[in-house]
Amino acid sequence: MLPYLNNKFWELVVIIGSLFLFFTLNSYAQTNCKYTFRGSVYDIHEDSPLVDARVELLNEQRIIFSSEQGEFNIAELCPGIYKLQITHPSCEPLVRNIQIPQKKIGAFKLEHHVNALAEIFVEEDIRNKAGKNQLESTLDQVVLLQNQSSDLGSILSQLSGVSMMQTGSSLSKPVIHGMFGSRVGIVIDGIRLQDQEWGADHAPTLDINSSDFISVVKGAGLLRYGGDTPGGIILLQKNKIAFQDTLTSRLGTSLQTNGRGGGLFAKTQWSNGLGSYAQLNLTAKQLGDLKAPAYNLSNTASVEKAFSMTFGRNTIQSGWEASYRFYDTQLSILRSAHVGTPGDLARAIESDVPLVIKPFTYTLGAPRQENQHHNGKLSYFRRFNEFSKWEINYNVQWNHRQEYDVRRGDLKDVPAIDLQLWTQDLEVYLRTKIGENYKLTGGLSGKAQDNYSDPVTKVKRLIPDYDKYHWAAFSALEFEPNNLWNIEFGLRWETINYLAQKYYDQNDWLEKGYVIDFPETPIVDYGTQLLTTLKKNFSTLSSSFGMAYQAVPSHTLLFNFNHSERAPNPSELFSDGLHHSLATIEYGELRLSKEKVNKWLLGVESRGDQISYSASIHYADLKDYIIIEPEGFEARRGSSFPVWQYRSIDGFLTGLDIDMDWLIQTNLHYQMNSSWLRGHDSSRDRPLIDIPPYNFQHNLTWTPPSKKNWEVSVQHQYSAYQNRFPDNNFDFSLLVEGDLVDTPIDVSTPPQAYHLWQATLAYSSKNKADKFWDFRIIVENLTNTSYRNYLNRLRYYADEMGRNVQVQINYNF
Amino acid sequence: MLIYFINKLSFTKHKTLKMKTYSYLKLPLLMGLSLLLFQCSNDDEDTPELINEEEEINRVSFDVTVNNSTTTYTWDEGDASLSIPLSTNSTYEVAVSFFNATDPSDVEAINPEVIEEADEHHVFYDNSGSVLAITSANSDNQDSAGNPLGLKTTWITSAAGDAVVRLFLIHEPTTKSGNSRTDFGGETDVQVDLNVAVSE
Fold it and tell me: What one-character DSSP code corresponds to residue A290?
């Protein structure tokens, strides 16, 4: 099998090479006749040249292709009348008689037939599928609409294998197969989001409402977007642009009782038959303090503003797009979660209710986070035959993160963390077909990142100033011999260079042994602090193998193997600071090497008229996997703070995901998904921390037969108790009647299992084809259950949000 | 208007493309250009500013006065505890002072800040060992509601005995009255264990 692939491959490389030559030279010689026929081919709608139109002299077996300018020459013709046929993949063929010698230059106008044109762009679906051989789950527009006031983490946790890492009730980030942060890539319209993704309490800085689809590809199979995402890739995409005159808009609002606020959402999409399009999105949300069943969650108010616009134009041969996204959010963090010492933490854990409960307010107090994200993109593509195209994408992002702590005096209104991250990214991408069955994709990308940590904070930088340069080359070969098999092999090489300037405490530099391991480091001595200039270089080689086999018409078997290599992120290397929500001191580790994960996924997918399901198992072998764990204590404020130190371990993560979709009757629909996961640290032979417990969720939707506009659904979620967890408990000294007593603080034991219920009532009124109203009432946590979530970093302090009644009104026109 | 603009833009784009013969060359050119851009945005030359943390409280001193004579006991971060020997049946005036001694050449007094923000602070001695009685002194500072701040206290001893007394500087306490640390809520800015030995 393999040698065959190899031979074939080289053969095809040669063919492609000669094709390129052929395009540029455009010469042809055959007969002794001296006349040349000149012509050019245009698109009738745009008056733009058609490249690679196939020009055939019928009965002569002479075929040539039009040039970049749409021009063609047929040389060495004898006098006479010829029949000329011009074809272009997406146009009606044109047949004309031509006369030699030629009187004037021939101008040939071809017309796209709209359907065919649309087909080129809408290859299978109204969105791009990530890959036929990847395990992918997608949330469509309907689901996104229902969750418009939600965030990425919580909306994705409806999918099997995906859970969320929370910081309180209002801040979440997605976790795929137990991995999050830098191990999960987020890609918006082809651009990898560049924010401070390493923090467990850093939510992705994006607005879900500016996308029409969100898919999750489990595993690191999409090497175009990075080889460092063993968890998976989250793709946010727009609808494909229709080649027709359309102008659709949606105005919506969502109001909710919990938090006594809501959002306004506006969206407009415009396109015309010539391929031009534009999109605009606006989101504004505000919520006050949320409420747990028994008390107010003081200081959990939030404000979010987002704006995005996209313009572009697609034609047959080429297209461009320019987009700009702005996202701004202010999120308060539960007041009672801000602790000063381990003793405070112990008191908070001991107490059943939060230690700070105040009346409801919309005020954003401290602690809080303020984030701004700007994301601009320019892209251009050009096709050079029906399937092949190259793309160039340029992207610039600016992320500004400020975290405000509870502080004293003049520092009250000064952030304790103030990070500005600039990213520029340039990618060149090529896609082509080799022969009938092979697709080759590949590209190069260069990325430059500049992180600036503002000293205005008057707090030692958690993350130092650094520059990061990132070069990558990737390629994938897809083989599709027939409808039954699809096989893909991909490689991605990256080199990552960090150049950081970081102050170390002189003691730390000595005690951690950096003075011995990094003797060449340039150091400026400031007495107790040392300014070091650190260079860290990593190069990674990630690979993926994906296979899909349609065993029977309704069943597809999928197999993926991904080897992903990830360079440590700046937090893992350099972080240095106090964490107020956990009363811990966190330290990075300069000696970390790249992390290697081998992940196997095996899945089966079945699509039927009544029942569709998918099931998959995955196993990830972790090598030098970077985790943060307690290691010793440090005196601070008269207390002993546990020190959490990044380190690398070996281990494994394995699990099972099941999804089912059952149309019981035409008006009764049942959906279920379930995931089970286990993570183990083999280095220390104990469970991995923060592994989501077993989760089961299902819902039943009923449409009354006589009232098709109505829909009622009930959803139930069960989250089990996580009985596998590492013991990270530590002692603090409690003063009991004048004596010091070492007392353990239980930071390890996960919370109890819980059941959650949700009910939805929806009504949509369609007066004309395109204009309709959509009303929805959603009651979350119907039974007002008090519960806590293991993956919530603030679970020690307060319960999750209680009952929430949401009213959504959307008008589509 | 906008729509017109976009169409216009696209057409212009096309015309320029038509004129360019070697569109394949644009690619490396652009790559090179943006590399330049990368280089320009580079600001390694800037040395990050040194930060001396201003909020740390890592020195606490106790001025213990009896019969007009004052002894100062000083605790520094890293010290396990501080021993304060007292005599039986005596009355002491104790004034506590907080400092940021991160920079030994520029030790910063925190008390003025605590006094200014008296409403948001409270000094509490966990004295559950009961070898002495601690009450607010007459000269103590008060918050806007007239609650004593606890910076100045009167310690009255009777019988001999040893106990650990723990001092807390509490930030944003939920209440200003209580008998245990738990009662006050808020966060601990600093705590110091005092080994109080009352002897004859």
Answer: E
Q: Which residues of A761-781 are buried (b: 16+ CB within 10 A; e: fewer)?
A: ebeeeeeeeeebebbbebbbb
How much is the pLDDT for A18? 55
Q: What is the DSSP letter of A694?
A: P
Using CA atoms of B113, B116, B119, B124 in order, give the dihedral in degrees to the nearest 10.
50
Whether B63 has a pLDDT exceeding 90, the answer reads yes
CB B51 within 8 A of CB B89: no
In angstroms, the CA B148 to CA B169 distance is: 13
Residue A666's pLDDT is 87
Strands (E) located in A553-638: 555-566, 576-579, 584-587, 595-606, 611-636
Predicted TM-score of the model (pTM): 0.83
- Chain B CB within 8 Å of residue A358 CB: no
Chain A residues closer than 8 Å to B6 by CB: 276, 278, 311, 313
Interface of B with A in 4-63 (CB under 8 A): 6-7, 9-11, 13-14, 17-18, 21, 23, 27, 30-31, 34-35, 37-38, 41-44, 46-58, 60
Nearest to A440 by CA among A483, A472, A475: A475
Whether the predicted pLDDT of A281 surpasses 90: yes
Indicate yes or no: CB of B23 within 8 angstroms of CB of A68: yes
pLDDT at A581: 66
Rounded Cα distance, A277 and A310, in Å: 8
Q: What are phi and psi of A596, to 5 degrees?
A: -125, 130
Mean pLDDT of chain B: 81
Name all domains of chain A by residue range, CATH numbers in brackets: 2-112 (2.60.40.1120), 136-812 (2.40.170.20)
The confidence band for A738, taking pLDDT boundaries of 50, 70 and 90, is confident
- Residue A369 contacts residue A330 (beta carbons within 8 Å): yes
ipTM: 0.80
Coil, strand, or helix at residue A387? Answer: coil
Per DSSP (E only), the strands in A15-135 are 35-43, 54-58, 62-65, 71-77, 80-87, 94-100, 106-110
Q: Do residues B132 and B86 lie in contact, with contact meaning Cβ atoms separated by under 8 Å?
A: yes
**Average model confidence (pLDDT) across chain A:** 88
Low-confidence winner among A340-354, B43-57, B133-147 (lowest mean pLDDT) = B43-57
Distance CA A232, CA A374 (A): 24
Q: Chain A partners of B49 at a C-beta cutoff of 8 Å?
A: 455
Give residue A400's identity as a one-letter amino acid code: H
Of the ranges A5-14, A662-671, B110-119, B153-162, which one carries the lowest mean pLDDT score? A5-14
In whole angstroms, how far apart are CA A206 and each of A3, A90, A116, A151, B74? 46, 36, 35, 9, 51
Tell me the C-alpha distance between A619 and A13, whole Å: 36
Phi-psi region of A226 (alpha: psi -120 to 50; beta: other; left: phi over 0): left
Average confidence (pLDDT) over B32-36: 53
pLDDT of residue A46: 60
Torsion sign across C-alpha atoms B64, B196, A731, A749: negative
Q: What CA–CA distances, in Å, run from A191 to A203, A225, A397, A423?
A: 17, 8, 10, 11
The nearest alpha carbon in chain A to B193 belongs to: A638
pLDDT for A769 beyond 70: no
Provide the pLDDT confidence category of residue B44 given band limits of 50, 70 and 90. very low
A638: Cβ–Cβ under 8 A, 6 or more apart, which residues?
A341, B60, B75, B77, B190, B191, B192, B193
Report the alpha-carbon distance of residue A747 to residue A708 in Å, rounded. 51
Return the CATH number of B59-199, one of 2.40.160, 2.60.40, 2.40.10, 1.10.357: 2.60.40
Phi, psi dihedrals of residue A512, rounded to the nearest 5°: -80, -5
Checking if the pLDDT of A23 tops 90, the result is no
Peptide bond into A367 cis (omega under 30): yes
